[in-house]
Specification:
Number of domains of chain A: 2
Shape of chain A: elongated
CATH class of the largest domain in chain A: Alpha Beta
CATH topology of the largest domain in chain A: Alpha-Beta Plaits
Oligomer: homotetramer
Chain lengths: ~140, ~140, ~140, ~140
């Protein structure tokens, strides 16, 4: 890992606004703040360009509902190539939260999402988009 | 307007990835690319912090449906303080697109959106979030 | 236009929650509320599936900056096939808001966005996604 | 749990479009498809209205970077009230993916996100928004 240093020229008032935001968010340095914006934009690009990415699919369901556990397990086994691991949380007596860590190209992840969404009895499905980190040194 | 120049230290490989993105998007300079990311993040902050902002509300409807034109006009007059102007486009024989330019604090704009969405016969409503530019020199 | 009537079976407690939301949002009927959700999901599908769609691009800029007006005009003329019309608002002495109504397939609209974003001096660009209404009776 | 049955009146062509979408997504019944749209809209409302919700925060980082593991652990312990559990995945020799399951009101979750984002050396942070399921029977 080598560090490069480059300079940026911007309106003073814009930099002042940005510095206030950095301070409010307790970001330690301006370089980190700029780096974070750059990394966020590159991760968006990875998803749009169809690169290999990672994600977390969050499922919430009532485990008493018919055979939902078996169905979810079946879908996950069918997609085992893209599923890394699963974290299960007992939210209360009825409700479960299951977080499925996935890795693959965006269309493959979309397809797992679609199959999970089609399972009867699911209350909610959502996705957090991440990066493998390989192209984000 | 005065320009300031500051330097940023980041991993070389990250800067290389960013430079490739800049080139693909035909962004003229690295300073503009960094400035664009900073401005985008500040506009998000303006909306979250409840500052005065601007927006464009896009309505699509079939003007033949009952008294939809009168109803939309009534809502817009009730909200005339926040509505700057309206652009009307005849998409085809039936469908109209109306773009309502709005200015105000986010909760006021949300409230206009809610009132417009409640009008019977509307096909779709969406919002583009903008900035007054005052805090974004 | 013909109306069909179909029935939906759902948990009572879910329907109660939905009814409260409908009332808070002053939506006149449950049919309209369900129809709105269906239309929103179909418009998302239109964008993902690459159908012909409409949109509004919101630009904010300081018209004093170099030759920004000429540059924006040039890009818009180059893309005249997809641009329907433009609404210009004088936000204050310096800042302009320009709302560009566009129509076309999503990649074409993305390409206009990319070209506009590359113009030096722009403060902010955003997009509201809409529908031509043709497939949303 | 009791099921209610209600009827919805909508344009035939709209219902036809929706049925095609249901079929493409292999959703088993129209009731489930309508229920899914209703549940998604209610989860959005829970987050906007500041109800207790759940989420998954996805962190990606290079564990070799300075003392990042200790810093992330410290933040997570400071926020232990809202953090349920953590799943750790070794993406490759350098990169780690950590999925933090959280539960609380949205401002509390935002505050954890802000503290995690401020940690130096993180490559990316994202959030999937979920529901406790309590108000979504």
């Amino acid at each position: 890992m080598s560090i490069v240093r480059f300079s940026v020229s911007l309106d003073k008032a814009l930099v002042d606004e940005f510095d206030q935001k950095i301070q409010r968010e307790q970001c330690p340095t301006r370089s980190k703040a700029v780096g974070d914006l750059i990394r966020d934009s590159l991760v968006q690009t990875e998803w749009q360009a169809g690169k290999e990415v990672v994600g977390a699919i969050v499922l919430v369901y009532d485990h008493h509902k018919s055979d939902i556990v078996q169905r979810l397990t079946k879908v996950q086994h069918d997609c085992h190539d893209a599923i890394i691991s699963t974290q299960h949380i007992h939210l209360d007596h009825d409700n479960c939260m299951e977080i499925v860590a996935v890795r693959g190209k965006p269309p493959g992840i979309e397809s797992i999402l679609k199959r999970l969404k089609a399972v009867k009895g699911l209350k909610h499905v959502s996705l957090a988009s991440g990066t493998t980190g390989v192209r984000l040194p």
